Amino acid sequence: MHVTHLSLADFRNYARAEVELTPGPVLFVGRNGQGKTNLVEAIGYASTVSSHRVSTDQALIRFGTDAAIIRLRVQHDDRAIVIEVQLNRSSPNKARVNRGAIRVRELPRYFSSVLFAPEDLALVRGEPGVRRGFLDALVVQRSPRFAGVIADYERVLRQRNTLLKSARASRVPAEAMTTLDVWDERLVELGTELMVARWQLVTALRPHIAASYTAVAGEEHRTRVGLQHSIDGAEAVTMIDDPDAPLDPAATRERFRSVLAERRRAELERAVTLVGPHRDDLILDLNGLPARGYASHGESWSFALALKLASAQVLRLDAVAGDPVLVLDDVFAELDEGRRERLADAVHDFEQVLITAAVGGDVPDRLRATTVRIAAGAIVDEASETGGAG
Ligand SMILES: Nc1ncnc2c1ncn2[C@@H]1O[C@H](COP(=O)(O)OP(=O)(O)OP(=O)(O)O)[C@@H](O)[C@H]1O
Ligand SMILES: [Mg+2]
């Protein structure tokens, strides 16, 4: 799929913007702080319902205004649809597809993009929550019904924690907590579903991560991925090497259930749920060592980029509606000449690739045929170098 038109109203530093986009590579250039990232952030938001830079939406709404609008015209094969999200400062956000209201969390059903930005270094170096967020967003992109499963899991978790807190306050003995059993059952059911989906996702990503790492770094480094399941204990890591060994839902459910029973006393003492996918982690190894803590800056960066390129590959293989839109924010400036060319090779056949750069010359020529210039929250011109206009 590709975006043919982007409209913004009161989004970040854009009062109004209208941008026509073509398939293939599109480069956004402009000096620092002009609005390049803001523009692609809007596109990313429309596909994942979140920003890669901020965890709350307030900063996305233009300063001094109450609501931002992102509208995209998206082409899926020969079908065009219009997607619209309205971010409201003091009421719930709204989403529409072809003018019909949809739930905001349903957006990933209609539009798919993969965005890589310098912030993604946190995928390798950051806390486990960053990696869980990465996996879950991709699980939802692959099968949108998981937006509901994850929301339900989080709700059950909150309610269970509230119950644990009130039990602790009123000193109810662990054995007498029969109301907790009902929540445990829901937690196990939904949690297992999520664990299985993450496992399947990592299994699908695995070969593409290895290939993308080599493609970007140009070196044969050995990447391995695994999952750390809190129901198996804090140290237990299962590396995923064998694509034919799926996580067995029945056995996982059983283990989850029995660990919850074992840990109930400890959970009542601490008044939090100690095991479940909300405490799991994605493990990334490079040449036999955990990338987090051992990999160099360049290696961490290549690994993070490889995770995103692998995501795009997996979505490409899943999708009936064509490739996800690939977004590379400020990537080329970080790379040496060889890596720039290799990255260009790795992305050139995606249906649409949106690239930002402060210095156009940092981006290989073949990705610069269509260049959009941005200054102070406005599109100053759209130059097609191949067409000779501009
Ligand atoms: N909610 C907002 N309202 C108004 N302006 C905003 C808002 N959020 C961000 N900005 C402004 O947007 C500008 C940053 O834009 P953006 O991050 O897109 O820059 P950029 O072109 O990607 O720059 P760089 O090359 O440094 O990455 C800043 O000047 C910032 O003050
Ligand atoms: Mg930027």
What's the quick description here?
This protein has helices at 36-48, 122-125, 128-142, 146-169, 178-217, 249-270, 291-294, 297-318, 337-347; strands at residues 2-11, 14-20, 24-29, 67-76, 79-88, 94-97, 100-102, 113-116, 223-228, 237-239, 281-286, 289-290, 325-329, 352-357, 370-375, 378-384. The protein is α+β, with helices and mostly antiparallel strands.
Could you please describe the fold and organization of this structure?
This protein folds into 2 domains: 1-112 and 319-390, Rossmann fold (3-Layer(aba) Sandwich), CATH 3.40.50; 116-297, Up-down Bundle (Glutathione S-transferase Yfyf (Class Pi), Chain A, domain 2), CATH 1.20.1050.90. The protein is built from 9 helices and 16 strands. The protein has helices at 36-48, 122-125, 128-142, 146-169, 178-217, 249-270, 291-294, 297-318, 337-347; strands at 2-11, 14-20, 24-29, 67-76, 79-88, 94-97, 100-102, 113-116, 223-228, 237-239, 281-286, 289-290, 325-329, 352-357, 370-375, 378-384. Strand 5 and strand 6 form a beta hairpin. Helix 4 (146-169) packs across helix 5, helix 5 crosses helix 8 and helix 5 packs across helix 9. Mean pLDDT is 93; it is low at 384-390. The site of adenosine-5'-triphosphate has 17 residues, from helix 1.
Instruction: Give me the Rg, rounded.
Output: 22 Å
List ligands, each type once: adenosine-5'-triphosphate, magnesium ion
Termini separation comes to: 26 Å
Q: CATH class of the largest domain, please?
A: Alpha Beta
Largest sheet: number of strands, sense, barrel closure: 6 strands, antiparallel
CATH homologous superfamily annotation of the largest domain? P-loop containing nucleotide triphosphate hydrolases
Shape: globular
Mean pLDDT, nearest integer? 93
Tell me the helix content.
Answer: 25-40%
Percentage of residues in DSSP E strands: 15-25%
Uncertain residue ranges: 384-390
CATH architecture of the largest domain: 3-Layer(aba) Sandwich
What do we call the CATH topology of the largest domain?
A: Rossmann fold
Helix/strand/pairing class, anyone?
Answer: alpha+beta
Strand order of the largest sheet: 2-1-4-5-6-7
